[in-house]
Design a protein that fits this description.
The protein is an alpha/beta fold and 239 residues long. It contains 9 helices and 10 strands. The mean pLDDT is 94.
Length: 239
């Protein structure tokens, strides 16, 4: 479903964030992308829905080249939850933010309203519907941002550091949600125990390159590999 070949990206200041990345992912997969700060995780994730476009190489998502011409279609297929919810939330009320995407695709308001309420109740944020997003806690904002993506019914869910603002209870709730969601999941996270519980495969990103990819338990149990890439074993494996 997703194929990346020799993908490279350099920022205007000369920083080479991605350097010939190659990655293949089948449908219904759950891939964790791990790496130290500055490894290129957020830059890679921002390519999946065309937020950034490849400068070199290619990315194919469900048969579509990631390009300016395909951005609109890609953003219906790929839902990207940003690392910082404040980059995603901007409407006067929470419910307006959640409904913003489908309404701008001219979806009928009546049908959307019912789906929005069902989703927000499932995520336990319906009681926040009339609150201004900027008055919410960081954890509440994170679930509102997730709802704004899930309401679009994407085929691919891309999440950047989804647990950074969550308390233990909400982290468990998010794990359960991700594990039951049907579709392709790509998750970048420093929280390796979270990756262990939600992803079947892991790719290690270092200095903009994929240096290892394999089954989650094999990669996350490899102390030498992790330490070489400025990472540590998940807490569950530390003695």
């Amino acid at each position: 479903m997703i194929k990346i070949e020799e993908l490279s990206y350099q920022y205007p200041d000369g920083t080479r964030a991605l350097d010939a990345v190659n990655l293949t992912l089948s449908g219904q997969s759950a891939l964790g992308i791990i790496g130290a700060n500055g490894a290129g995780k957020s830059t890679l994730l921002s390519h999946f829905n065309g937020y950034y476009l490849p400068q070199q190489g290619h990315m194919i998502v469900d048969g579509l080249e990631v390009s300016a011409a395909n951005r609109e279609v890609l953003r219906k297929k790929v839902g990207l939850v940003f690392q910082h919810p404040d980059d995603q939330l901007f409407m006067p009320r929470v419910v307006d933010d959640v409904m913003f995407g489908p309404l701008n695709l001219n979806e009928a308001h009546e049908a959307l309203a019912g789906r929005t309420e069902e989703l927000m109740r499932f995520l336990e944020i319906w009681h926040l519907r009339d609150r201004p997003p900027f008055h919410l806690s960081a954890g509440e904002k994170r679930f509102v941002a997730l709802a704004a993506v899930l309401v679009m019914r994407p085929q691919v869910l891309v999440m950047d550091e989804p647990t950074s603002d969550l308390d233990p209870r909400n982290r468990r709730k998010l794990i359960a949600l991700i594990n039951q969601w049907q579709g392709t999941k790509i998750i970048a996270s420093h929280h390796l125990d979270f990756v262990w519980e939600t992803c079947a495969e892991v790719a290690v990103l270092h200095a903009g390159r994929i240096v290892a990819q394999g089954k989650t338990q094999e990669i996350l149990s490899d102390r030498e590999l992790l330490e070489q890439n400025h990472l540590e074993l998940p807490l569950r494996l530390q003695k």
